[in-house]
Amino acid sequence: MEFHTPGRPDDLPPFETLWARASALSVLEAAGAENGHEYVGPFVHHDDSGGNEWRLTRLEGGRGVLVGADHECDDHSSVEGFDPYAGPDWLPWDLLAELEDDREQGFAYWWDGARWDRIDYPDIIGNDGLNLLLKHLATRESALSRVMQHLDVPSGSDAWDEGAPRLDRVLQLAEERTGTEEQWRAVLDDAVVFIAKAQADSEYRFREPDECEAAPALEVAERCGLIAGTSPEELPAGKGRPDDWSWTPRPRW
Fold it and tell me: Which of 41, 42, 72, 217 is most buried (most C-beta within 10 Å)?
């Protein structure tokens, strides 16, 4: 799946698919396979440790919002009146204000329950960073590859052939959302065995093998609503853009 530059709403998978993949990577992160995705509720936060990040948030009513920034994509900072939040009233304004207080965000996409949308960009914006930050979630295979690479497992190796099916089962369960708690526990127990072995064999070793556990991963799966019979955490929808809420682009450096 190819992304456009700048990103377009139809580059993104449907919200539930994107949520499942991002959440699954957060589940694996909690299990010990650090990959830059963390569920901090009620959103998944991706941080590549290089000044680039995004947050995927669920909102009531089957809606959601994706907000992020890549430090190399700041064309908008020179556009007078540029406002990425000129969208629907139901955007989570308190969250957006909090994020803007922390750092300027470079893009905002919102899901209305049926499709993604964003503001129309002026021609000066050559790239908003979507292709740099979300491409690994375009397919299940690319999401799996991201985790395996962070575990320092070479593609085509015996270790890859051993571990890929185990971790892919986590991604599969996340997308299906029909797995019971017992099924999830069994799959995570199996995944943790491989994750611990990969950490032990890695020259980087982000986690010690005995720090890899299924219990915290199972908790994340439940909070994200991936286990059958559970409901994901979500933010209430906004009730209109506050009169005193403004956004002014500014240089990042």
Answer: 217
